[in-house]
Amino acid sequence: MRIIINEIKKIFNIKMILLMIVGVLILYKLYASFEIEYFPNGRPDGDTYRITIEMLNKYGTSMDEDEFKDLKIWREEKEIEADKYLSSREEFTSLNIDTYKKFQEKDHEEIHELSNKIFFKEGVDVFWELQGMDSLIGLYEHKDSVIDKSQKKALENRELEIIEKESNESILTNIIFDNYNNFIGGFALIILFSIIFMLCLIFIKDRVNKVEYLQYTSFVGRGLFKKKIIAGVISSLLLTTLFIAIAFKLYAGNNTSMFYNCNINGFYNHTFWYDLTFYQYIVITVVLTYILSVITALITMYLSSMATSYIKVIAMIVPIGGSLVYLGYNSIITKGMFVYVSQFKTPIIYAVLIISTCILIVKKLRRTKRVDILY
């Protein structure tokens, strides 16, 4: 255990930590900060977000037909409020625009100028809220439509299953879901980069300094490879836990916890292979991130043990590590459950990665036990 602790200390040396922090800050700014600093992003997304919170308080995690009728009444009340606003403004009444319907029907340059004034200069809330409500109502009215009859039978069956279970009555919107998905994808990228960066030199240092030959002269030395692997895996878990904790501390500021019990297959969201609550989906993405982190750590250490120079380790790790980061950021963590992605794609990719990585590490462990000192 003492050797493992010492190896962990060597991994987390001050110079590497400082360089890692610089890289993490750059990646955070590029791939994750936007989802925290600009949520909800503009209008009418911000208005739709606030409306869905009110809907959640009134109707619960889903909205049935009776509650939908209430939403339409609420929308009519907002339209009356907009009518009063327009009828009280001379620049609109002079153009014979004293109702919201007339405002929507008119289409000429002067109306466009007044519309820009209402929406962007004055930012009148009721007009933005009506846009958000119209989107919600329009999508709910078509929630039982199968998107494409010509699509694969499995997809059509899944959509029909969602309709039958009424999962598509969920109030969760893609505004909230995409925000989380983009954010956790960005942090997955940060985590995988950090692991690759911190572990890429774990074996190459000993090989370049010819320490390996001394290690192979003793039984304890030959067991050092296994201990380094354990130290690397522990280090990857520590890094993952640290960044996951930071991520959810930041994400808590987006105030979306009230939607955790909503089904992810909402009328205003994407369609998925599985019926999960938003909270369950979050837990699964975290678990997938941990698994991919360990896989990335093992592959990085294996490549480090195979390289004979710093240049070669970089040449080996950059393309393979980059591919793993791409998979984590763009595919198997954040998009593996969407119906437009094969239901078996993510499990197969993870199975292949786990099995192939285990085979490589086991073969390397056996080789270190019998390799000749003059190899």
Automatic annotation (TrEMBL):
Keywords: Membrane, Transmembrane, Transmembrane helix. The chain crosses the membrane at residues 12-31, 183-204, 229-251, 278-303, 310-328, 348-365. The keyword Protein transport does not apply. It comes from the Bacteria. The keyword Methyltransferase does not apply. This is ABC-2 family transporter protein. The lineage of its organism: Bacteria, Bacillati, Bacillota, Clostridia, Eubacteriales.
